Structures are given as structure tokens and as C-alpha cells.
Amino acid sequence: MCRAVCTHVNGGMAFEQEQDALLQRCSVYNSRGDSQARLVVVSLLRLVLDEQRMDSIRSDLFKRHSDYNIAVDEIGMKLDFIWAPYVSNLTHLVMKYKVKRNYPDVLVMGSGLWHMLHVNNASDYDVHLQLLKNSVVSLLPFSPELGTNGPVTGSVSFRSPHLFWLGMPMLINGMLNTREKRGKMNDAMWHAYDKALGNTKLLRQTGGPLILLDIQSLTWNCGPRCTVDGMHYDGAVYEAAVHVMLNALLVESHQRL
Hints:
Elements: H1 12-25, E1 28-33, H2 35-48, H3 51-61, E2 68-72, E3 77-83, H4 87-100, E4 106-109, H5 113-118, H6 122-139, E5 162-166, H7 179-184, H8 187-199, E6 211-213, H9 215-222, H10 235-256
Parallel strand pairs: 1-3, 1-4, 4-5, 5-6
Antiparallel strand pairs: 2-3
Helix pairs in contact: 1-10, 2-10, 4-6, 6-8, 9-10
């Protein structure tokens, strides 16, 4: 599993160096979700690839509704993106990990926008999030509520992956590019979906297993100037999310040493 060097770091340069070391120690990154997750993958790759190689993979990386994987041999990192727009897709993928007992070092998941547009039912979203939470908890060697003092019944013995949830962005309704989106993806529905996420206690802040990458706050701070369609934002937003993730990985890795 990935482990950062346990040193006291002062200053931005040293912290960036430790993040680079962490990227090398976390050899397998898996991102599962919708277009927001794909944009996070793009930002992560920009940290580890030069401009020429980014240009060479851009067409494959930006194919809509498709999977993508890459090996960065220079640092021994493998990254997989799986197009999984519904929560049920995520649950299925998590259960495949359990069956195969083959886990990534870092797992980033996110879903909501696709369900909001095509299902438009926060109660249904709530049900599927609860099923996802149950499947994720069944992977963990210890219950998040119990810390490391109590095992989960039926759990396997292994060092669990670092788990992240990619939150939904702020939606700017007037900028959404279809009438259907503007009708279904309104503020009331966004908040209903956000409430469902809180109700299921999937996130670490509510006692669950996943650390939130708070895209909503990042997009709120950036605002309308950072988006052309009210949903997908400039790269700076997703780059910030990647750095938040790496900071959390550093903290978790130090705690696990």
C-alpha cells in the first residue's frame, strides 16, 4: 500500500516533494464515476506527465462515456478510470473488488449528476447510496464507527484502500445547456440529492468510510467565470481537488505507519 515518508514538513516546496513521493508510493489509482471524475483524472495526470505526453493521450482521455487506463512507468503508477455514472455501477465495481480480493491503493468515486438528470429522484438516489455504503464497509477490515478497535463481521484481512467521494459541483441553472437540464437539475433537486448523501452517512464527516472531495465548495468559490455550461468547470477546480486528495493521503499515510 502507499505510504508517505513520515517526516515533519515545513514550507510549500518540501510539501510538494512529499506529495511527489506519495504519488510514487501509491501505485494503483482507480477513479469511478461520471464526467466530474474524469476531469479529476485529467488533473492528476497533469501532475505526473509532461505536456507532450498529455497531448498524445488527450483524444483517448476525453472520449465521452468511455473507460480509460494508463501506466506511468517512470514512477510505477497505474491509473484506471471507469465510466460509472450511476451509484449502482459503483456498487457493482466495489463488489468485484471483494470477489477478486484485488484492491487499488486509492479509490475515488462519485455519482449524482447523471442520476439527477436521467432518474431525477432523490429517494432512489438515497437507497442506492445506502447499498454502496454497505458494500464499501464490507470491504474494510474495521468499521469506520469503531475506528481500529472492532472488526466488521465477514470483512477480509488487508490494508484497505484510501477511499474518497467526489462531491457534486455547484450547478448554475441558467448556464445549463439544455432545457431538460435546466428543468430537472434545479437548486431544490440539487439540495435533495445532497441531503440524501448526508442521510446515508457515506462520508467520513458523518461517520462513514469515504473522505469528501468538496467540489461544491471549490466550484462555488470559483463561480460562473470558471464554467461555460454551468456544470463542468475549469481545470483549476479539479487541480485543487487533487491537491486536497494528496494532502489527505499524506495525513492518512502518516497515521498508518
